Amino acid sequence: MSAKRTAMTSVDRSWLRMDTPENPMMISAVLVFEHPIPLKRLKRTLEERFLKFRRFRQRIIDKGDKVYWEDDPLFDLDNHLHTIALPGKAGKRELQALASDFNSTALDFRRPLWQIHYIDNYENGCALLIRIHHCIADGISLVRVLLSLTDRTPEPKLERVAHPKLPTKPNGTAASRFLHRIVDSTQAAWGQANLFVNSIRKEPDYPLKLATTAGGIFLDLAKLGLAPFEPKTSLKSPLLGRKQVAWAEPLELETVKQCARTLGGTVNDVLLCAATGALTRHFTEHGQSIPDCGIRVAVPFNLRPLDQPIETLGNQFGLVLVCLPVEVTDPIMCFRQVQENMNRLKRSYQAQVTYSLLDLFGRGPDILERRALDLLSNKASAVLTNVPGPRHAVYLAGSKLIQPMFWVPQSGNIGIGMSIFSYAGTVQFGITVDKGIKADPGEVMDYFRDSFENLHQAALAKAGAGGFRQAS
């Protein structure tokens, strides 16, 4: 293999194969800044911090049974960074329309799979609209990469970071390399055997724990495969490939935390409950019947240690199916049901199971993955991500980031993506909806804020009446 070419992992290949005209596999972001960013300084920041990841300078070579990353011999930053402006006194509505246009358009597979559009003339500042293909990395990793471009102060000390050196060709003949692989595999197997023996010596019940874990994994795999398809609702309509993007005005994170403390739950429980209430309101306002068994959303679950720096990209996450009790109209009861569902999932192996399935599908023929993808996508009505961001404000090339929004793509016949992102004491909530689904994204954003407010007021009222003791 060429020193400039590396094989794509099976998991990343799975996400590449999921790309369809209806659902391009792009992770997208809209970043709004307080002041215009000098373009020259933005380019310098990208060169020094973004392009240090070799993957952003590589294109995809698809040989059918094999897929490779190859250094783009004609790479030029200007092919990926574009400057545009919104007309007149354009505001949030116009920016959402522009984001919808770009999120409905596939990336150019002749080049490295990412684009950044610098949007001038937006509310006395500027915005960046970023699109990156999912096969490069998962959403959590890419959010961390984008945040690595920022600083805590407007005046950073930028230092040029050398691009990583290309790997050298392995020495020796094919026979000697094959022999080395055998030796490496034997050593790995021997190490695993020693680890198993030592574990038994330290913990006599280790084999029982191992068997119990294996049984739990098998049970979760069976549950995933046997789970019924999603009920027929307006959220599962045929897709058109035209995306509509919207985001709500941010919530105060401290208010969300107060609500969680009052209810004795987590911030994640509160936000999932607010999302549930928003979908319930959507069904009610449009006179649609509400499924009496709830609906499910696919939630990415990170499998990469968050306390370690990102040195290599790629996808390291699984998916869990979370049931949202949209049939429960009482805010407190809805919260308790969401909390119970989440606690049950935290004890499961569903994320590890779905990651392993993606790895398996990526190694097999395309038709196998398509069948499996159709099967899994029929078991969720939406994708929902919840990513924690920095607790303090950050600056990119000297300009303060005032509102960040991120979306992960949907797969198969799923046409709704919801995203929750905490940043600098706020909680941002956004949505992308395929035009084939009869749901107004702006309305759903309003419903989300109303749903949270109803839950917060209900929690305060019950706490004041002595319904439950407020956490300290």
UniProtKB/TrEMBL annotation:
Pfam families, A to Z: WS_DGAT_C (PF06974), WS_DGAT_cat (PF03007)
Signal peptide: none
Enzyme class, UniProt record, top EC level: transferase
Reactions that this protein is recorded to catalyse: an acyl-CoA + a 1,2-diacyl-sn-glycerol = a triacyl-sn-glycerol + CoA
Occurrences of domain O-acyltransferase WSD1-like N-terminal (ranges): 8-270
Domain of life: Bacteria
Keyword Ion transport on entry: no
Alphabetical keyword list: Acyltransferase, Glycerol metabolism, Lipid biosynthesis, Lipid metabolism, Transferase
EC number: 2.3.1.20
Molecular-function GO terms, alphabetical: diacylglycerol O-acyltransferase activity
Gene3D superfamilies for this protein: Chloramphenicol acetyltransferase-like domain
One Gene Ontology term from the biological process aspect of the record: triglyceride biosynthetic process
Segments forming domain O-acyltransferase WSD1 C-terminal: 314-455
One cellular component term from this protein's GO annotations in UniProt: plasma membrane
Pathway assignment: Lipid metabolism; Glycerolipid metabolism; triacylglycerol biosynthesis
Protein family: Belongs to the long-chain O-acyltransferase family.
Protein name: diacylglycerol O-acyltransferase
